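User: Design a sequence. Structure:
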């Protein structure tokens, strides 16, 4: 049980460090995230079942990963122009350029055969 307690405390500290990094310079977001993290940990501090604690640890790790890799900050530098703060941890996926002249594969003008019709023909 002592080992689980240490892991919970490590995750608590780690998610707060991630919060500080992700929301750096945004006091409102920093305070809201701190309040939410503390509220969730306090709400569950009386849980004693080890499987439940392990599940909450896993959830905490997932939340920390999500915060670190998926959340970005953007600020308006002039009207209608925003600057995004992307970190080295931010997940970057391959971006496919938009093709305005692309033709969809599906022809929506003609009716599709019903699955019942396909089953009858077999």
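Assistant: Done.
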């Amino acid at each position: 049980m002592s080992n689980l307690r240490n892991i919970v405390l490590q995750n608590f500290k780690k998610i707060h460090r991630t919060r500080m990094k992700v929301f750096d310079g945004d006091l409102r977001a920093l305070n809201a995230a701190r309040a939410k993290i503390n509220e969730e940990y306090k709400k569950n501090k009386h849980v004693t079942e080890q499987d439940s604690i392990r599940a909450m640890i896993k959830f905490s790790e997932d939340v920390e990963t999500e915060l670190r890799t998926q959340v970005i900050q953007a600020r308006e530098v002039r009207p209608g122009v925003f600057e995004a703060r992307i970190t080295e941890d931010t997940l970057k996926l391959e971006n496919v350029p938009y093709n305005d002249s692309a033709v969809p594969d599906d022809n929506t003008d003609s009716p599709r055969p019903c699955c019942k019709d396909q089953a009858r023909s077999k």
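Residues 116 and 122 are 10 Å apart (CA to CA). The helical segments are 2-22, 27-43, 50-70, 115-120.
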